[in-house]
């Protein structure tokens, strides 16, 4: 039966879903976490290996992800690549439209339309808060996994020996937080709130000197500054900056390693 909005409504034939139920079951049953890289595609992460064609027709998409209970008329049955440009032009039924827009599978098309194909591009994508929480959570989790593994690798590479530098000792072999990128911190700790593409190279130590310079939206900045993650990181960065000043003074004294530091103490 053709609905006056151009949508052909069919009887409900099961529980509608976007494929996430099956993905959840696989996640529970599986024991090994996927190994993502910055070159992993957002589609691979969100669809867990399944792929979606840009040439897929809207009715095929509805059949696959809405459970076959709805289809549009032939004059509205466009490719998903066309549909994502102006969804409400092809589906006027607001309830159905909202269901489509909230599907994780649809988020892939939306991200592709925004030019986000890989995790590296998601890293500095400014529209994170326009993506549904489930999809955003999956992508942020994958990115956070990579960033944490990188920090762990860097920390393991730092070894203490008799020739350890004063810098190693002062910073206790840890990865320097003030050299973390602002956008990475916002993604890992604050869900991507405040990420701006032009800040992709900004380090935390620069950000904390003048936060308003890098996040112009006062409301967003206020929300970020009120979080516990912001306050704890601010303290950590300031501590490291103080230690850097100590390091600079020691270097001015010609002290670069542990033996040199011991000699300075005996003087």
TrEMBL record:
Q: Which InterPro entries match?
A: DUF7578, Trypano_RHS
TM helices/strands, residue ranges:
none
Domain DUF7578 residue range list: 54-114, 176-240
Q: Which NCBIfam families does this entry report, sorted A to Z?
A: Trypano_RHS
Q: What is the name attached to this protein's record?
A: Putative retrotransposon hot spot (RHS) protein
Record region (Disordered): 1-34
